[in-house]
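User: Is it possible to get a 3D structure for a protein together with its bound compound? The compound here is zinc ion. I've pasted both below.
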Amino acid sequence: MKEKIYVLDASGIIGGFISSKHKNITIGGVLSEIKDLKSQIAVQSAMDDGKIIIKEPDTDSLNQVQNAIENSGDILRLSEVDMSLVALAVTLKKDYHPLVVTDDYSIQNILKILEIPYQSVLSEGIREVYGWIKICRGCRKKYPADYKWDECEICGSNVYRKRIKK
Ligand SMILES: [Zn+2]
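Assistant: Yes, that's possible. Here is the predicted structure of the complex:
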């Protein structure tokens, strides 16, 4: 059986998802999308511990993702970084069982087409998530820790920070 590996996009890292049980991997471009100091420190120390590996996709995988987007008929809004991250998951399929951790719907859609498993950062049932999230007092919608506003974008109620246990 192939080894499991988590492929993290910026939302995964900012959301506090760095697995201690399995390998984590991302591309260099994702790191430059991480602006908040707390996440930068978390990534740096995970890199120092060898818990996060940085790797780039191969050209074949990039072409495969490009084709899938063109053939999908949908207008998928994927940045170059997003496409490279998806392509990295394609590259990894040869040697690993990649699981992409992302809250980005466009990325999730293209992963569906490519039949690569994924999970949301804030989805229930993820045992290895730790860090902070924000929750609306009204409708209980969950937001990533770096959500900038004090009010819920759905119902306008107050949003508060909550610690997620590991
Ligand atoms: Zn709300």
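Residues 3-119 form a domain with the Rossmann fold fold (CATH 3.40.50.1010). The longest strand covers residues 3-8.
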